[in-house]
Design brief:
Length: 701
């Protein structure tokens, strides 16, 4: 191989610090024409660009290269290949004929590829796909495709091909590159309430204020349903979502009719607006036609929040002070709701009053008109309206004794005005005095112990013991909670006198984290209980002092791939276990993941004693299986069994699941197809969302 370097004066025309170097079997420099010609195994490296080809001509004045024969241009964002490519080393612009582009996870081929800048590429009469094979399993063919490497792909007049078979046509298509959700999905299965079903979703993207999901679902026992979830983002007024889902149950489309034709729907609007740097506006509005609509069609969402909320809030935070304006209004009469019309609250959090003494001041104050509106299923109940003004003030002193014992005494008062009580008396003021003392101390000892016994990688051991004793006292309110309408926790305050005792033991070691050693927790054990000095019964007499339940908490992480968590609560009166749980999670290499859990609960409604197991095994790069079992120990029967087979189809993933619920004799199966390049849960399964509360600042999903 012959090495040739452009003379330094000419190289300076490209960059005075980084000249272009041409390697090849034969390299010639022409002084008069200001160009370099190379043939045979050409390789050019310039900054972050590598160009290889059979023949190249580089013009030094224009900084352009004409490459021919097995041309490949590799950059950080993408790789181009073709028989002839014109490339500018300065602007990184490129033009190619009969070429291909690779910008993972997307791949494309076209008759013409024009790259006007390093951030954009245009494909004329070509296709894009996420399949990296020479003959892709699927592709999206279009007249024109534009790839914005750090943003999105835009295609016009597209035809979706599976193999060589055209399946769908769309006049316009956008795929945001930052999203990892499947662009289209279908979920089919069988369920007792729905019958056989097919849930389809298609993601659209026209702009930042018009993007979302179209839904078309069919259930043999319900009929055809349609919906749209639109998400938007504005430059100055925030972002949010608007969702609508509609079904005409038992109409002509239902195969198995179970009643009269009935139209049902849900409409939802959610919005967040950062009004200023310290003020956030949150809005949520839900409207339903049918009380059980969310439960019937969006069960995951129902599990998170059984009754939809409607509110408008403004939250302002400046230093230690936060103010909240909240209006909550019922939109449908299916639910019993405590309306706030409106509420204004001020919170002052742990404000240090002086630099000399560690004295802190906490305060909350609120004013609200509360209106409890009852559901139409309770026609005999009348709405209850009460005006309430509440103020709480607390002083605390953070002291450290003997450099180890943290002692924090505090005292506070709560004064609350009520426009009326439950008996109709008006203009009442309730006073409550609260006090307490928080105590904690930490002891630790380091053991100079190193071992790799059973592969646990122990590099010294640190044992930390933290006992705490927090005393709390609430004097009997001047107005008993039994005399007040109960709207929230403020109305439920009652006398209390006890101490919270806890003892935490923690065992730590150090393990390698890259080049350094980092502390990790091997074991954590906490035992805690409340000791009540006096308790009041319904006759206003004080019961004898006693311990409440004893709570146990144990966490073990002996290996990075093994984790165990155990919790238990023991009733000191009956000396029986009230609740207990054990969770064990293990991952063995990349082949096996295993989870096992036990749940025990003894409540007045009955005893629950369940054992669960979840095992996933990767057979090879193509096949994977999963099994889930839930077993009732007391009844000696399986409550639920689920089995899933995963198949890797190179650029697609397919899942087949069969689930049995023995208590309802309900059998469900579903098949899910997902693009491998977008491995998140397919849209057909996502009937839930992370819902921000009015007091949070999370943006709508």
């Amino acid at each position: 191989m012959i090495f040739a370097s452009i003379p330094e004066p000419r190289a300076a025309e490209f960059s005075p610090k980084e000249p272009v170097v041409v390697n090849g079997d034969k390299v010639e420099y022409f002084q008069d024409n200001k160009k370099v010609i190379g043939t045979g195994n050409i390789s050019i490296v310039y900054k972050d660009v590598t160009l290889t080809c059979d023949q190249v001509t580089v013009y030094l004045d224009t900084k352009e290269a004409i490459a021919e024969g097995n041309v490949k241009i590799a950059q950080k964002e993408a790789t181009f290949t073709g028989e002839r490519i014109n490339y500018n080393f300065d602007t990184k612009a490129a033009k190619a004929i009969d070429a291909a582009v690779s910008a993972a996870p997307f791949y494309g081929k076209a008759k013409e590829i024009d790259r006007p800048s390093e951030k954009e590429a245009r494909l004329e009469r070509g296709y894009v796909t996420t399949c990296d094979r020479q003959m892709p399993h699927y592709r999206i063919r279009a007249r024109q495709v534009r790839i914005y490497f750090d943003d999105r792909i835009v295609a016009r007049h597209i035809t979706f091909y599976v193999g060589n078979v055209p399946v769908l046509y769309f006049p316009y298509y956008i795929q945001p590159l930052k999203e990892k959700s499947a662009h289209a999905s279908i979920l089919v299965g069988k369920e007792s309430d729905w019958g056989y079903y097919a849930l389809t979703s298609f993601r659209y993207y026209f702009s930042e204020i018009c993007k979302g999901i179209f839904r078309v679902d069919y259930r043999t026992k319900k009929g055809l349903a349609e919906g749209v979830d639109n998400y938007y983002t504005t430059k100055s007024l925030g972002s949010g979502s608007a969702k609508f889902y509609y079904i005409n149950e038992n109409d002509a489309t239902a195969y198995e009719k179970s009643g009269e034709v009935e139209s049902k729907y849900r409409a939802q609007v959610r919005h967040r607006w950062d009004v200023t740097a310290d003020t956030v506006m949150m809005l949520e509005c839900n409207m339903l036609r049918d009380k059980n609509f969310i439960k019937d069609y969006f069960y995951k969402e129902y599990e998170e929040l059984a009754e939809p909320d409607n509110y408008l809030s403004f939250i302002t935070t400046k230093g230690d002070i936060a103010t909240t304006f909240l209006a909550r209004k019922r939109m449908d009469n299916y639910f019993t709701v405590v309306e706030r019309l409106p509420e204004y609250r001020i919170d002052i959090k742990s404000h240090r009053m002086t630099e000399r003494f560690p004295v802190y001041y906490d305060a909350q104050a609120s004013g609200v008109y509360l209106n409890k509106t009852y559901a139409k299923s309770s026609p005999m109940q009348k709405d209850i309206g009460v005006g309430r003004i509440d103020a709480f003030n607390k002083l605390s002193y953070a002291a450290r004794i003997f450099k180890a014992l943290n002692v924090t005494p505090y005292a506070g008062t709560r004064q609350t005005y009520y426009s009326r009580n439950r008996w109709g008396d008006t203009n009442l003021v309730r006073g409550i005095f609260q006090a307490g003392l928080d105590n904690s101390i930490k002891f630790y000892k380091i053991h100079n112990f190193t071992s790799n016994f059973l592969g646990m990688e122990i590099n010294k051991l640190r044992h930390i013991i933290t006992p705490t004793a927090n005393y709390y006292y609430t004097h009997q309110p001047t107005v008993a909670p039994d005399n007040l309408q109960q709207f929230d926790e403020i109305d439920a305050y009652d006398t209390d006198n006890g101490v919270r005792l806890a003892l935490e033991n923690k065992l730590q070691t150090k393990r390698k984290a890259g080049e350094d050693l980092a502390s990790v927790d091997l074991a954590t054990f906490i035992i805690s209980s409340d000791y009540k000095f006096r308790l009041r019964d319904n006759n206003y007499e004080y019961k004898s002092q006693k311990f409440q339940s004893v709570d146990l908490h144990l966490e073990l992480t002996p290996y990075p791939w093994l984790y165990m968590l155990s919790k238990m609560s023991i009733n000191t009166k009956t000396q029986k276990v009230q609740t207990a749980s054990v969770d064990l999670v293990a991952t063995v290499g990349d082949k096996v993941s295993f989870g096992m859990g036990h749940r025990y609960e003894d409540v007045p409604t009955g005893v629950s004693n369940l054992l669960t197991a979840d095992v996933t095994y990767k057979i090879n790069d193509t096949w994977k299986v999963r099994a889930y079992e839930r077993y009732n120990i007391d009844k000696a029967t399986f409550e639920e069994q689920g089995y899933t087979v995963y198949r890797d189809l190179h650029c697609w993933l397919v899942e087949f699941t069969y689930d049995i619920k023995h208590d309802t004799e309900d059998q469900t199966f579903w098949i899910v197809f997902r693009l491998k390049a977008f491995p998140d849960v397919p849209l057909g399964l996502r009937r839930t969302y992370s819902r921000p509360q009015y007091g949070s600042v999370g943006s709508p999903s």
